[in-house]
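Board work, copied verbatim: DUF2782 domain-containing protein
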Amino acid sequence: MRLPYQMCRSLLLAGLLLGAPLAMAEDPAPGAEPDVTIRTEGDKTITEYRINGFLYAIKITPSVGKPYFLVRADASQMWTRSDKPEMLIPAWEIFSW
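↓ predict structure ↓
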């Protein structure tokens, strides 16, 4: 049994219109809000800031003293305090085999 052309066209249009809102529903913008994880370790509170699963900053709040941030120094796993300006020497790998 073949469906008439008009009925096929109507079903296709209805399917497209019903699926359009699902296609338009997107995840929030990538830079919208970071995921924040707060945990206590000993006498300090550690707050981790992540965007899309990437850890980009850590806030350390000791029970005594000022809070400070650790940020990535480079692409490796090295962190540096953001409140103490230090001269960062580039550590680029030009060539290796």
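Residues 53 and 69 are 18 Å apart (CA to CA).
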